[in-house]
Each structure stands twice: as structure tokens, then as C-alpha cells.
Amino acid sequence: MTALAEHTCEPCSKNTQPLSQDEALEWLKSLSQWQIVEHDGIMKLSRSFTFRDFASALAFTQCVGDIAEQAGHHPVIVTEWGKATVTWWSHAIKGLHLNDFILAARTDEVAE
User: Fold this and answer.
1) 94 neighbors 17 (Cβ within 8 angstroms)
2) Where is the signal peptide (predicted)?
3) For the segment 80-110, what is each residue's pLDDT rounded down to a tens digit?
């Protein structure tokens, strides 16, 4: 596991401050191929993964779903033929938290 994936996710509440853009960009250096995107004024962490067929993309989606359930933190996953796009952000704080980067690192491990 990567060092980031080994971190423990911490519960965050509505009072938790989202990461600043500078903080998010610093954590982004720990991830490969992820990007920060903004939707409706909310920073999110997104990456697309490619697969040889739909079944492989679906199996990946299920594994990411299992990781999400264990952490109690759920991404948006769009599954298509040969592709799955995963987007993490912390809904409660309407932005990025360290948890999102931890779970992105764990998502990368599923794809390996």
C-alpha cells in the first residue's frame, strides 16, 4: 500500500473546514493521474480508469464500492463499457478533505 492509502479516515462534520486549494494541490502530488475538478463551486477529486471490457469495469466499480462502504464515505462512480470514472469529495463540507485523498489512493490500489 502507498503511505497515503495507509492513513485512517477521520469522521468529518459540517463544522470541518474543507482543504484550501493550496492544501489540496499539495496532497494531489501524492496521487498519480487524479485531477481536481470543480462542479457547482465544489472542488472534487476525479480520475478515469480504463478496462478491456464492461465486466472488468463493473468488477472495479464493485471493489471501489466495497472500500467506500467500509469507510462510510461514498464517491460518484460512472461505469461504462471499458471505463469507470470515480469522483471523491466530502458532501458534508462541500469540498475536499484528507479522507478523499486517502480513498483515492485506495482506489488506485484496486486498479493495480
Assistant:
1) no
2) none
3) 999 999 999 999 999 999 999 999 999 999 9
Spell out the domain ranges in the chain: 19-111
With cell 478496462, the residue in question is: 51
Asked if 100 contacts 88 with a C-beta cutoff of 8 angstroms, the reply is yes
This prediction has a pTM of 0.94
Give me the amino acid identity at 81. W
Q: Which CATH number among 3.30.1360.20, 3.20.20.80, 3.20.20.70, 2.60.120.260 corresponds to the domain 19-111?
A: 3.30.1360.20
Contacts of residue 90, defined as CB under 8 A and 6 or more positions apart, other chains included, come to: 12, 16, 18, 73, 96, 97, 99, 100
Strand partners, 90: 95
DSSP assignment string, 26-59: HHHTTSSS-EEEEETTEEEEEEEEE-SSHHHHHH
